[in-house]
What does this fold into?
Amino acid sequence: MAKVTVAKTAGFCFGVDRAVKLAYEAVDKYDSVYTLGELIHNPDVVKDLENRGARVIDSLDGITASDTVIIRSHGVGPDVYERLLETGARVIDATCPYVKKIHQIVKTRSEAGDVILIAGDPSHPEVMGIVGYAKNDCFVFENADDMVKLIRKIYENIKKPIAILSQTTYNISKWENCKRMAEGYSDVSVYNTVCDATSKRQSEASELSKLSDVMIIVGGCNSSNTKKLYEICSRNAECYLIENAVELGQYDFSHVRSAGISAGASTPAYIIKEVQKTMTEILTKEEEFNFEEAIEQTFKKIYTGKRVSGVVTAVNPTEVIVDIGTKQTGYIPQAELSGDPSVKPSDVVKVGDEIDVIVTKINDVEGIVYLSKKQIDAQKGFDEVKNAADTGATVSGVVTNVIKGGVIVVVSGMRVFVPASQTGVRADAGLESLLKQTVNLKIIELNEQRKRAVGSIRKVAAEERAARRAAFFETAEVGATVTGEVKSITDYGVFVDVGGVDGLVRKSDLTWARIKHPSDVVSVGDHIEVTIKDIDKENGKVSLVYKKQSENPWDIFKNNYELGQVVEAKIVSITGFGAFAQIIPGIDGLIHISQIADQRVNNVSDFLAVGDVVKAKITECDLEKKRVSLSIRALIADREEPAEAEEETEAEAETEAPAEAEAEEAAAE
It folds into this structure.
C-alpha cells in the first residue's frame, strides 16, 4: 500500500512564523508597507504579501517618515538601522531572535579584539547582516577545510583570539565536523549558533529519506536551509526539490510505493498539506488503477451515500449546479455547501472548480441528484481533527457561532466546540469578539463514534507564549531596548508583555515627572518601547524602564540653569516649613518659609497658594543630592539695595549743599 509521510518538524520555524505574523499584521494596519528584501525565501508567501500591499525593496532610497519598513527574519547590519533612523520611517523588526543572538555574540567578541569566523554562505542575507556587527577582522568560510586554512593564516599573520560561529541554517553535519577540527587549536572559542529547529529538521529528514523510495523537499529554490535538506536527503534516496504541489506533475512516480516529505523553514503549512494530498493522490492512482475501475468510470452509476467528483457549472445565490458525469443534473443546496451557514455560495466555489461531493438524494423522474459538499468537508475535517487529537498538532478554523457556554469553530468543514473557559477570553468580556475570526486551537477531547470534538484556543496561546518566553530569556540582555504591550496597571507600576514575559515597570521607572498614578502615563493596550533593567531567569522575572535617560530633568536642569539665576516657578505643594515650586517638570525647588517674604511668615498659605507662579532666585543647587533651594526674599532684597543706595546719595547731597554755600559766602567777604 502506498505511504506518504511528512516529517514532524517540516515547515515554519519560530523565527519565520513570527516574521510572517508581524508582516500580515503590518499590512492590515498600515498603508505604505515595504519589506527590505524578500521577507522569507518562499515565493508564495512573498507574492501573497505583495498582493496585500507589502512591496519588496532592495534599498531605502525614497523611503520617508510616512512609510513602514519591515526588517526581514534574516536580519540586517547596524548600518541599515542607522539609515532607517535617518529616514524617520516606522520600523518593524522581524529579525529572528536566534539571529539577534548571533549579532550580539559577534559584536561582543569583535569589540574584545577577536577575529570572527562565520560558517555559511557569504552571499546569504543572514550572513551579510552578521558580518556587519564585526568591527575589524571577519571571514566567512563554507566548510571545515576552509576554516582550518583561515585559522592557520590568522595564527601566522594576525595573531589574535578567534571566535567561530555559524549562520542559523548551516548544515549540522558540516558544523559538527568544523567543531571537531577547531578543537585542536588553542585560543579558539566555538559558539553553537545552528538553530535547534534546523538541527532537528535536518536530522528527521535524513532518517525519513532512509525509509522512503523518494523524498520530496518543499521550499523556495533560493532558500539556504531548503537546499541543505535536499543535499542531505539526496544521499539516501531519490530526491526532488519543489516549491509547490503543481510541480509534482512533471515527475514519474510509477515506481514509488513510499514517499517522504520535508520542508524548509520558510514553507507555510498549507503548501505542505497540498503537496501531501497531491502526492497521496498520485501514488493511490498509480496503485489502484485497473481495468474494472476504468469500465466503472465509463458506465458511472450513482446511489445515495456515494462519493463522486464533479465540475461546478453554475453558482446561484441559493445553490450550486455540478456536472458529475451522469445523465442527472447535480444540485448542492446552500445548506449543504459549507459548515458556515453565513457564507454565500460564491464565497465557497466558482465555475470550473472540481469538487468532491456525496449523493444525498436521487430523483430519476426529474433527472435531479442532490449533493452535499459539506459532508465531504466534514469527513476531511474529522480526519484532520482526529490526526490533531492523536498527534497534538495545532489546527485552524473560523469561529462561526457563539452559543451558550462557548463558541463553534469550523475546522475544514467540521464543527468543533470550544468552551468559554478555553477561548482565552476574560470571563467579564463577551465571546462575540471572536465571531468570524480565524483561530488556532488544540483538540483536547474527541468522540469518534459521534464525531464530536472539543478544542482549546487558550492552550495554543499558552504554548505560543511559552515559546516566546523561552526565546526571550534565551536572547534578552540587560540594557537592550524592546517593544511591548501594556497588559495591566497597578498602583506600584505597569506590567508590559515583551514577548511571552510580563515585565514590570515600577512607578519610579515610568517617568521623570511627579505622578499620582501610573495610569497618568500609559493605558492598557498601549505599545511602548522599554529598556531591560534586570533579568531574573531563575524566577522568570524582568524589570523594565520606560523613562528615557535623554529626558532626565536633572540633566536638562544642569544644562540650562545655574546658581543665582532668576526663574519662574509654579507652586505645587504647601508644607509647614515652606513651599515646593516646579522649575521644570520633574524638578521642584524648596522655598523655605524664611525665604518667602522680607517679614516674619507664620503661615505659608497667607502668602502662597498651589498654582501660583512666582519669580525666585536659585540660591542652592546640589545635583548629587538632587536638591534645589529657591528664594523670593532674595529678589526683594535685590530690589531694595538700589533704592537704599539712592536715598543715601540724596542725603549726602543735602549735607554738601550748605557747606558749599558757606564756602561761597566766606570767599565773598
